[in-house]
Amino acid sequence: MKKWSLIVFTVLAQAAAGAFVILIGHKALMGATATVLPELQVLVASTIIMIAALFVSLAHLGAPQNAPRSANNFLGSWLSREIVFGLLFAGSAVLTTIMSWRGEMLQLRVVISWLGVLFAFGMVFSMSRVYMVRTVRAWNTPLTLFGFFLTSLLLGALVNAVPARRVNEMMVSGMLFLIAVGVVVFLLWTLRIASDLQLNNLIWGAVFRIILSLVGAGLLIAILYSTGNGIDLVRDAFVVLLAGEVTGRWLFYRAQEISEWDDRM
Amino acid sequence: MSKQLAFYLDSSACSGCKACQVACRDKHGLEVGRLWRRVIEVVGGDWLPSGDAWTSTVFAYNLSISCNHCQQPICMEVCPTNAITKRTDGIVLINAQVCVGCGYCRWACPYNAPVLDPVSGKMTKCTFCADELDKGKDPACVAACPMRVLDYGELDELVDKYGNLRAVYPLPYETVTEPALVLTPHKDARPAGSRDGVIANKEELG
User: Fold this and answer.
1) How crowded is the C-beta side of A40, counted as CA atoms within 13 Å?
2) Cα separation of A238 and A49, whole Å?
3) Adjacent-strand bridge partners of A148
4) If you write DSSP's letter for every residue of A120-133 in order, what string do you get?
5) Mind telling me how many Å the CA of A77 is from chain B's nearest CA?
6) Which chain A residues are within 8 Å of B172, Cβ to Cβ?
7) A136/B108 touch (CB, cutoff 8 Å), yes or no
């Protein structure tokens, strides 16, 4: 239960952060009127996903009544920082969504949305550093950092693409690039731990995760050759790629469980 | 002047009887599955053909390990609620009133010392029997050991008396968290970081 709540929390929180950052960044680059992204829908999705993630995270605590104390060690603990940034990001997302829905306070909305981008970055970075603890060799590698950010960007791009009116070539190319880099990072991580751990259980999970990524990539490539707007294919790709990311995250936690009594620094 | 209480283990004579483990569980009322002191059984080697005969390189030794009340306790660094503190005598304790039961200390601890109390939902670990020390008595594990391989005291005094070995396989290098632990190794003990051996009783360790 504890592991699964953390798998769901980290994947959902990263998806929410990625969706928010990509939306705000895309608007800044392309201009508010040139974007094809459905702003309000993405903001609502990002906000709901993040709030759901925070609630799910409570399930991994043995004493959730003490959860408010989790910010006590902000100066020393990456977990405290992850929680604080996560709450600040969620708050920024809520405010940005409400102001976007009401179509008011544009300048303040821009400020809060960019603060949200900073908090989202802080949350994912802190989340990565939580796991890069020096005593867990399976996790203490820059590949953890890269992997978490790639998950954020890929799932965030998909959250933006799913409610869009159409999926263009640039969106598909971007997602394919993220999938390719993500597979490479995952393979490097798997090879790194393979030298130290019994891979019997992990190897098939790793193969399955890569297959899901390839199937997802195939669905996205099919968009380029389809005559429709690609929305159905991108939704299918979202489901497959989300399953791939969940599988990868499961392997991530499993690696620590297997090495708990071996492979310490 | 602050001091550092530490445990000593003479692994060369540890029989692996687990009396220390039973005494600890009895004193602290630990239920099945929750251990504050673990006896790790390390085995390795093989029988190798040597001409018409066989040569044995088989080895086995035991390590009785609890929380090592480290001088650089990583559990304290990572705890989000500041529930873990280090006393002036070096004992590291978890404040149950503040603990949120996230288990991060368990992940971080290279000795897997903190364990979750499933009833309270809080993390728990060896307390060095601080209450017994206050009465002038020994920790339960030290008092119970029939082989007299466990001892405790000021870390510097233990080092002067027994030497400065602080880690053997499967324990991590002592530079990671600077454990308040002094060891006399078994004659077949492998150095920390070695891959020549396995833990034979992982499922017992919790």
Assistant:
1) 6
2) 15
3) none
4) HHHHHHHHHHHH--
5) 5
6) 135, 264-265
7) yes
Q: What is the pLDDT along chain A (265 residues), one digit of tens a residue?
A: 588 999 999 999 999 999 999 999 988 887 766 556 678 999 999 999 999 999 999 999 999 999 999 999 999 999 999 999 999 999 999 999 999 998 877 889 999 999 999 999 999 999 999 999 999 989 999 999 999 999 999 999 999 998 887 788 888 999 999 999 999 999 999 988 887 666 666 888 999 999 999 999 999 999 888 877 778 889 999 999 999 999 999 999 999 988 888 766 5
- Contact present, A66 and B81 (Cβ < 8 Å): yes
The 3-state DSSP class for residue B84 equals: strand
Q: Could you say which residues from 125 to 184 on chain A have a Cβ atom under 8 Å away from some Cβ of chain B?
A: 130, 133-136
Place of tokens 């998950």: A151
The per-type count for chain B, helices as H runs and strands as E runs, is: 7, 12
Query: 3-state DSSP call for residue B183?
Result: strand
**Does residue A265 sit at the B interface (CB-CB below 8 Å)?**
yes
| One-character DSSP codes across A166-234 | ---HHHHHHHHHHHHHHHHHHHHHHHHHHTTS--HHHHHHHHHHHHHHHHHHHHHHHHHH-SS-SHHHH
Q: Compute how many other C-beta atoms are within 10 angstroms of the C-beta atom of residue A195.
A: 9
Q: What is the dihedral sign for C-alpha A150, A152, A157, A159?
A: positive
3-state secondary structure at position B94? strand
A211 in Cβ contact with A179 (< 8 Å): no
